[in-house]
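Researcher: Let's do a round of design. I'm pasting the structure tokens now; please hold your answer until I've finished.
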């Protein structure tokens, strides 16, 4: 047979009144939403700036590569053109 166990409720010395506790929890919840939104919106400009920096670096590398290729093509043209032969 199963024995019925009586739940034990311990008395704590901390007594919280419901209304102030509810107000404190509501304020904490709203504050968490505000702080979370603030940090999320703070990250947006940083992410955009990081994206711009990455695009600038990639664009600079591609332009430098194109410049080297253009100089190589110019060199080949100068070597083959009869006007520049001695």
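Researcher: That's everything. Go ahead.
Model: Designed sequence:
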């Amino acid at each position: 047979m199963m024995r019925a166990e009586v739940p034990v409720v311990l008395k704590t010395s901390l007594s919280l009144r419901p209304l102030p506790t509810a107000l404190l929890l509501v304020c904490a919840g709203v504050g968490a939403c505000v702080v979370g939104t603030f940090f999320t919106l703070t990250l947006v400009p940083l992410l955009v700036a990081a994206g711009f920096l990455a695009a600038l670096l990639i664009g600079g590398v591609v332009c430098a590569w194109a410049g080297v290729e253009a100089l190589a093509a110019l060199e080949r043209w100068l070597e083959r053109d009869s006007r520049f032969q001695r």
